[in-house]
Amino acid sequence: MIENAKPGDTVTLTSDITSSGNCIVIDKDGITFDCQGHTISDSDSGTGIQVSGDNVNVKNCGVKKFEYGINVNGSNSLLENNTAKDNSIIGIRLIDSSNHTLTGNLVEDNFLFGVLVYNVTNSSFTNNTVTGSLEAGISIADSKNNTLKNNTVSGNKVRGISLRNSTGNAIDNNNISHNQIDGIGLQENSSGNKIRNNTMRFNGNQNINPLDKSSEDNEIEYQYEISGRISQFKEAFTQLLEIPVLSTVFSNERINFYVNEKPEGYIVIRNSQIVDFGEDELSDQSMNVHITEEAIDKIAKGETTVEEALKDGEISYEGAGFLNSLRIGIYSFFFNVYSFFTGLGS
Description:
Helix content is 16%, strand content 40%. The chain has helices spanning 228-240, 244-249, 293-300, 306-311, 322-342; strands at residues 10-12, 17-18, 24-26, 32-34, 39-41, 47-51, 57-59, 62-64, 68-72, 78-80, 83-85, 90-98, 101-103, 106-108, 113-121, 124-126, 129-131, 138-141, 147-149, 152-154, 159-164, 170-172, 175-177, 182-187, 194-196, 199-201, 206-210, 219-220, 253-259, 262-270, 273-278, 287-291, 315-319. Strand 30 (262-270) and strand 31 form a beta hairpin. Helix 1 (228-240) crosses helix 3 (293-300). The longest helix is centred in the last third of the chain and has 21 residues, at 322-342.
């Protein structure tokens, strides 16, 4: 079907395809390939859609279980509304080319990278969702003057977005969250980039991490990180876990917290370490913690400590359900004994 197409033609897929090795090869210019929602799949070999021609549009395609889902080395391509999933190396790869537009694509659970951009210039990535990669969700290397805007990049094992030896790129208004190491990592002369107005939440190490001195000179403007209340409460709980008895009390808990009796979020603690927190209210919590607005503000400003707020009754805690209430009551008794002998309760 592709071999008979001429520039300006649209080639459509009318059913799902199962292939072995390379499946669709578009080496002509000016072709539109529309899968119409159908899926091309393999068993972890070859490339699903190979684009070598210029001015090619690939849209509405599902591509899964290849080594490379979609591989592009022609220029001026448009990839829109595609799903690249469960590919054994990379979901979408752009290499040695320029002037691409990627919009509305779902790139999910690909083994190494979701999107790899290598030696690419003047391209636009908008309204894509990239999640579940073993390394970076979007990896940009040796590339410049590209724009990433309004994308969701989350749940990747190392970084949400990685820049290596790349400059002049704009990363604007993206949602970058729940990546296990960093939200954005910059290394090997990745300076001169603009990183602005991104929502960055719950990234494990740092939201923006220049990994070497050659990558420190970037224009970074306001990043919305997490709600102020959650950030303050996490800081308060970090202090609380430094108290010997309370690090035992709160060693493994799922906690809803309330400020002035209004639900403000949750904290999950395992082995006396905070492993998750967020804005929702848990339905299976083991404990509720209540704190006054005045107390959490004073703790955040360093005007009081968690110990003092506990002594003054500005922080209280209770088990959720009968067994948890009994367990927490016992812990509370021992904490009161500890407080008496250490002077905390005086």
